[in-house]
Amino acid sequence: MSEPATHFELFGLPQAFVLDAGELDRRYREAVKLVHPDRFVAASGPEQRAAVERAAALNEAYQVLKSPSRRALYLLNLQAALDEEATVQDPEFLFQQMEWREELEELGNSADFAAIDTFRQRLIRARQDVDQEFSGVWQDPAQRPRAERLVRRMQFLDKVLYEVRQLEERLDDF
């Protein structure tokens, strides 16, 4: 029996950007049970190694599929390798990034929790908009450049949302 070719096939899921997170979790748990080390205690060395490798593949696939930005990048790479070195021509978003960075810096200096929460909610809405837009274009080869820009926007928004969480944690410590 041959191994599934994609992370989606590993879990018996359709190759899609929009996934049911609960279903992914359920299928992951079921798959991991089958390769748990306890099931291979009496197995040969090669069988034990194969189980460990399978578990590692399941974990990697799960981590990719549960993250929308990593899933989007994975989907694009399944179609054609993404040029990681390509310069993104997205001046509108570059300007938006600078504004968000300045706002985050000001929020860090102000320690205004309500303003930080409002900022985080705006970023989450922006991220949802990008996800929705990506969902509508990723399968269209003519929209490939747009899909690549959207993935990079997702990655930036993930990073800024992470930095907002770090800021909140730092301020909570005071």
TrEMBL record:
MF annotations from Gene Ontology: ATPase activator activity; protein-folding chaperone binding
Cited InterPro entries: DnaJ_domain, HscB, HscB_C_sf, HscB_oligo_C, J_dom_sf
Any Pfam family the entry gives: DnaJ
All copies of domain J, residue ranges: 6-78
Leader sequence residues: none
GO BP annotations listed: [2Fe-2S] cluster assembly; protein complex oligomerization; protein folding
UniProt xrefs under PROSITE patterns: DNAJ_2
Keyword Cell cycle among UniProt keywords: no
Keywords noted in UniProt: Chaperone
GO cellular component terms, semicolon-separated: iron-sulfur cluster transfer complex
Subunit structure: Interacts with HscA and stimulates its ATPase activity.
Family under the similarity heading: Belongs to the HscB family.
Listed PANTHER family: IRON-SULFUR CLUSTER CO-CHAPERONE PROTEIN HSCB
Function as written in the Swiss-Prot or TrEMBL entry: Co-chaperone involved in the maturation of iron-sulfur cluster-containing proteins. Seems to help targeting proteins to be folded toward HscA.
Protein known as: Co-chaperone protein HscB homolog
